[in-house]
Amino acid sequence: MRGEGREVAAPSMPKKRRKETFSAAKAVREMARARVGSPKPSRLLPAQKTKPEKHKATLGKLLEEQ
């Protein structure tokens, strides 16, 4: 038969949640949001269309351009 030799575990109790430790930084941010409000959402920067060259042009490339 199917499942022979296996013991079926009884549903166990969920684990206790761990108590969060106090974080001064989080507390300060919460107080600031209460006074001023939440910060504006960030905006994506437009992608640069061309990347500047990393190295100076070689003599061969300079002669090709002319």
Please tell me about this protein's structure.
The chain starts with 23 loop residues before the first helix and ends with a helix. The chain is elongated and about 80 Å long. It is mainly alpha-helical. The chain has two helices and no strands.
Please outline what is shown here.
The chain is an all-alpha fold and 66 residues long.
User: How would you spell out the order of helices and strands?
Assistant: HH
What is the number of strand segments? 0
- Our Rg estimate from Cα atoms comes to 31 Å
- The residue-averaged pLDDT reads 80
In helices, the fraction of residues equals 25-40%
Low-confidence stretches: none
Helix segment tally: 2
Structural class by secondary-structure content: mainly alpha
What spatial form do the alpha-carbon principal axes imply? elongated
Distance between the amino and carboxyl termini: 84 Å
**Percentage of β-strand residues:** under 5%
Could you give a short account of the major beta sheet?
none
Give a quick set of tags describing it.
single chain; 66 residues; mainly alpha; 2 helices; 30% helix; 0% strand; elongated
Present the secondary structure layout.
Blueprint: H1 24-36, H2 59-65
